Amino acid sequence: MTGRGHVKFRDIVKMHGEFAALKGVSFDIEPGEFFALLGPSGSGKSTTLRILAGLDAPTAGHVFIDGKDVTSTDARDRDIAMVFQSYALYPHMTVAENIAFPLEMARLPKAAIGSAVKEAAQKVKIEHLLGRKPGQLSGGQQQRCALARAIVRKARLFLLDEPLSNLDAKLRLETRAELKKLQRSLGVTAVYVTHDQEEAMTLADRMAVFMAGEIQQVGTPAEVFAQPNSIDIAGFIGNPPMNLVPARYTNGDILVAGHRLKTAARLPDERDVIAGLRPSALRIAPDGLKAQVDLVEDLGDMAVLDLNCGGTIMRMRVGDHDVPREGDTIYVTARPQDIHLFDPTTRKRL
Amino acid sequence: MTARRLRAAVILAISAVFLLAWAFPIIWSVLNSFKTDSDVLAYPPKLIFSPTLGAYREVLFGSGSILPNLVSSMIISVGTTIVTMLMAIPAAYALARLRFHGKKFAGFYVLTTQMLPPVGIIIPYFLVLQTIGWIDTYQGIILIYLSFSLPFAIWLLVSYFEDIPLEMEEAAYLDGASRLRTLWRIIIPQVRGGIAVTVVFVFLNAWNEFLFAVVLSGNTVRPVTVAMFNFVSVEQTLWAKLAAVSVLAMLPVVVLGVVAQKQIVKGLTIGAVKGGGRR
Amino acid sequence: MAASALASAETGNPGAGDFGHALAQRERRFAAALLAPAFLALLATTTFPLIFLVWTSTYRMNLAMPFMNGFVGFENYRMLLIDERFWSSLLISLVYTGTTVALQVAIGLALALLVMDMKRGQGWFRLIAILPVVLSPAVVGMIWRTFMLAPDFGIVDFLAINAGLGSQNWLGDPTLAMVSVIAIHTWQWTPFAFMVLLASLASLPEDIYEAARLDRATAWQRFRRITLPLLRPAIVMVVIMRTMVALTAFAAIFTVTGGGPGTATEILNLYAYRKSFIELSIGYGAALAVALLIVTIVISGVLFALRRAK
After folding, report:
1. What tens digit of pLDDT does each residue of A104-116 get?
2. Whose C-alpha in A96, A124, A341, C108 is 20 to 30 A from the C-alpha of A106?
3. pLDDT (tens digit per residue) in A228-266
4. Is residue A350 part of a domain?
5. Closest-CA distance of chain C to residue A335, Å
6. Are residues A158 and A277 located together in one domain of the fold?
7. Residue A300 lies inside a defined structural domain of this protein
8. CA atoms within 13 A on the CB side of C5
9. Are residues A278 and A217 in the same domain?
10. What pTM value is reported for the model?
């Protein structure tokens, strides 16, 4: 089964009248990969998925699946299965009939359909619900039914459009883990659209981060987290996201709110920069930057502090043992390698 | 008696008056249909009398039987309903879902066709049908009934099609169903409720139509609403028989009204929310 | 957002933009195929007759005197403007429409408010209210004309006698005949307004009334300041729908008075019918029908403008 589901996007442009929903998007997805399309709403990630599915036609550019140009291939002929955000279950059919529908359309013999339906239902643990109608299912069960309908056909590509967004928080975490296991066991290529960076980080082998109709970065979650290549990504990834503060670079140091911090980065000249500091990278040190604790959000096993460093607001994550109190004055610093520098005008990483 | 109980009593009294006002003419017709002519004409009006089926026997099996007219009404109504739905369902789906140039105009056109005064378009119908020899035929009447049933049906169905999420169709398409199969297997089963509502209204409107029927019917095809006039003439009114015919003409729609109560209220309410619509 | 891509693409030609065009074209063709039967039928049964009607209205076409037939241009319309019977029928139409619609909405709304909080008995209202609405106006007219309004043994006359008003010629007296046809139309269609307004009332959110109560609004204030404004769209829609129907009402007057006595209840619609099919003056009848169409368009235009207005 390996080798199935290789996706190549080349310079895809999608115009809605004057508005460019996608401004030339290119990326590759390897067979068997769990690939996430991550971005805020309106960034073009869903449009990308719809173009890959063949539900929308691109204005320019080419889509290849398994080496074949499918740009002009009909959605029905692309051998793609999809789970919709709303699940799009057929309300007048039972769960079994829903799952059987794609096979029925493929004109499989009745017996083969029956066993395939059972197998798919078992994989997502809804075999006891086959006789019910979607309206009689809970949200989580509906979601599984939609998954079963998508996997039953053993398509070469498995598209998921925010499949967890309609579940409550606890169920979302459970399903997330199961989804990953399911994809691994099927060995199928999965493309996953989400606006939730935590979901993308935990699920994806690799991800593409969309901003305003463009891909700003492609990489593994770890790479994107460790080396965000623009201010926008830095501000989008991580919870709470990276602190981005104006600073001045001079000779291996940066000047933040009147305090000097060492950085690992080396720039040719002295210049204005935006310094990025993850809340988790900040630590308390006597020779650090003076900060007043404005607010403490205690999350039980850790706390998030709102710090006021002479007018510059930063957030910091601390463990549950040494939580300062509101109104305290503390001194914070960061390791040189944890300080990211960005260009304030191009917004790119320096 | 407390103010609250007085209030309840007043409400009850007003309610009773209105319920009686709405029900009475119908009940009274039913009672009269079981009377003899002299009982109908009695003064003061008789609530208690010895009932007879004489009037029904006469109008159903007598010389001037209206049985053929009831059959005519039924053929016209069922025929109109079938033809209307066959045309309206695909059209409403296209208007609700598909993207094409002039869609707004097409929707507006459907709405405006409902504004034509029937008395205006009956003149051309009469002249044209006379030329092609379709006066006093089922096909002639059913064709003309499309002029009011079709816009109404399309316009009512569009709102039901619009309620179905687009993702449902996309899912079916990715599952490998063709457009027609998607429409047939996925979409239409989901608008069954809306189709039922529309069928009820189209049937009622066709059964109750009068103006077109008066002008376009003849001795062969004469619905009961028109045939009823045989019992009222300048010289004499056949009271009990008229009552019996009225009851027979009301019977199918009243039964439908009671059975499809929910659908009718739904249809009326959608109409009021969306606007337009003739009845 | 239409099902833009739900069309089979042509195989072969590669360009991305072409694929989009192919999809759009597929969609258009599919739409055309689905719309064609209904729109052909509508063209044949509404638009064509309309054109024919306007054309007819420029002819003298009298089936009783066919030798006089011929093109007369605007002659029929010129005659219409000085035709007193036309103006009187127009006035009767407006009075009939105005009073019946006002009565339906007023009574329907009052009853809906009355019944709204009723726990038991609402079902009876829903059931009984359906009955007049489903009946044929022709049958309704016939029942009223005979068993309700006939002198002496007609129930209405019987009640009038017992109330000390004496037997009245309900359909023979010009004023009473007008009152009668208005009453009959109101009887039949008030349940429509009642059911629609009841459903709209039921759909109003409960919590705003609770909030208003906490804000110490009296029952009357709650009605004036909350119920009425929220109900306005539904009321306007009922008015529009009922007006369109009342303007072209036919059977319920035709069967009851036939427009009489004389022309006392002859609405414009009925006048056009009589001219065309009794007097067989089809050209002039067509002009009257066009006039009715213009009146309908003007009135609905005003009402729809009212609907859009805040």
Report:
1. 998 889 999 999 9
2. A124
3. 989 999 989 888 889 999 999 988 888 887 888 888 888
4. no
5. 49
6. no
7. yes
8. 29
9. no
10. 0.86
